[in-house]
TrEMBL record:
Annotated region (Disordered), positions in chain: 108-159
Record field: compositional bias (Acidic residues): 112-127, 143-159
Family: Belongs to the UPF0212 family.
Any Pfam family: DUF555
Protein name: UPF0212 protein Halru_2149
Classification via PANTHER family: UPF0212 PROTEIN MJ0068, UPF0212 PROTEIN TK1194
Length: 159
């Protein structure tokens, strides 16, 4: 089973004046820490709300220092359970983001590709069988001239 895991990180940023500046610096800092080892982790701004439901910017600034909420999203392959996927994501991301608190927000199971591949392969084989049956029932209109046209094009491709 494959899972998509979203982890929230509280990234500290120093010497900033605006929330936008803090967010840009936090995303850049996190990207530098994760790359090149974890370049498949998607970084986005986190969402913060008050207890009453009012939205807040993802950065909290006090005394020219900020704490920025970022969401780090990655796919974990071949896991047994959701908890297993969450542990792997926290470990992989946490090893590179030392001293940055992490919390798993969402673990979503991805649809199994082997099942969808089998169903699409069955549909394709059914379509090809129908096409074959239709071509067998119609009289053949191709001539030797059509076959000659195909061979020179193939030879041109080889050159």
């Amino acid at each position: 089973m494959d899972c998509r895991v979203v982890v929230e990180a509280a990234v500290p940023v120093f010497d900033v004046e605006t929330p936008d500046e803090a967010i840009r610096i936090a995303i850049s800092k996190t990207g530098e820490l994760l790359n090149p080892d974890l370049n498949y982790v998607e970084i986005s701004m986190g969402e913060r709300t008050t207890p009453s439901g009012e939205e807040l910017p993802p950065a909290f600034i006090a005394a020219d220092e900020a704490l920025v909420a970022l969401e780090l999203e990655m796919t974990v392959f071949n896991v047994e359970r959701d908890e297993h996927a969450a542990r792997i994501a926290r470990k992989e991301i946490g090893q590179r983001l030392e001293n940055i608190p992490l919390e798993v927000l969402v673990v979503k199971e991805l649809p199994d590709e082997s099942e969808s591949d089998e169903s699409s392969a069955d549909a394709e084989s059914t379509e090809s069988d129908q096409t074959t049956n239709a071509s067998e029932s119609e009289p053949s209109t191709s001539s030797d001239e059509d076959d000659d046209d195909v061979l020179p094009e193939f030879d041109e491709l080889l050159d």
